[in-house]
Structure formats: C-alpha cells, structure tokens
Amino acid sequence: MLYVVGKRHWIRRRKRRAFTKLLKIAKKLEKGGISTSEEERLIDQIAEVLKKDHPPKPLTIRLFICKRCRSFLRPGVNARVRIRSRRRPHLVITCLTCGQIRRIVYKPPRPPTKRSIGNVYGTRRQADQTVSRVSKEE
Ligand SMILES: [Zn+2]
To answer: pLDDT digits over 28-69, tens only?
Structure first.
C-alpha cells in the first residue's frame, strides 16, 4: 500500500534528525578535550546543519557559541557568566576572547500553584492532597 504523507511530515522528520545531530555535536563540545581545529570544524558543522534544515537550537548551542568570534564558550575558561537582577533578572555571558557581551533575560521560576501541580501529577484532588501535605511539612 502506498502511503501518501504530506510535505510537512518530511520537513518535520528532517528537522528532528537535524536536531538530534546538533545535540550530538553539542555533547562533544561540552565534553571538551578536543583541539581548537576540531572545535572549529564542529562549529562549522553546526552552521551547515542550521543553514540547511533550520532545526531548533539546543540550549548549549543557543547560549554558548560566541556570535562574533564563533568560539565555544566555557564558563570559567573563556567566558564569564553572571546573573544580574537589576531592571529584569538576566544572565550576562561575556566572551573573554573577543569581549562580546550577551544578555539573556529570563523569568525567575515561580513557586508551583495548585493548578500547575494538578496538571503534572494527575487529578485536582491528588494535587490538593499533595499541596496540603507539602504545606504541613513546612
Ligand atoms: Zn567571542
């Protein structure tokens, strides 16, 4: 039998595969212990994959590749990461190779509400029990 699937299906599949590829590369970069030329090669690979299939970027790639000098940022080695709370809570990632600064605004995590717990851990009643148990322990 011939299955007819839309173009979208193939695009999604390609994106998913590209994403896992990126994850693999990111893992290699995170692990470290590779030469500078090897690192450059990996980053070139990432750029190629992104250009071709436009997959979502894994967090490591999104945050820890310098956009100016394209080096992989390792906090404490060639990058400085600071959390600032003024104006809006944000991260400041500074590349110590070229001095590029990036600010990433984030929402601080909110304490879980009854509703959000209910969504994760089953019914509303179970959530109520969990919440009352937790608040008793405190
Ligand atoms: Zn840089």
So the answer is: 888 878 888 888 899 999 999 999 888 888 888 888 889 888
Q: Which two tokens stand for residue 108?
A: 């601080």
Which DSSP letter does residue 122 get?
S
For residues 7 and 48, membership in a common domain is answered with yes
Q: What is the residue range of 76's domain? A: 72-107
Q: Whole-model pTM above 0.70? A: no
Two structure tokens written together for 122: 């089953």
Are 40 and 8 within one domain? yes
**What backbone torsions phi and psi does residue 78 show, to the nearest 5 degrees?**
-125, 20
Q: What are phi and psi of 47, to 5 degrees?
A: -60, -40
Q: How far is the CA of 109 from the centre of ligand 1 (A)?
A: 29
- Cα–ligand 1 centroid distance for 89 (angstroms): 23
Q: Is the dihedral of CA 109, 113, 115, 121 positive or negative?
A: positive
Taking CA atoms, 87 is separated from 6, 91, 128, in Å, by: 47, 12, 36
Q: Do 133 and 98 belong to one domain?
A: no
Is residue 130 within 8 A of residue 115, CB to CB? The reply is: no
Dist. CA 72 → ligand 1 center (Å): 8
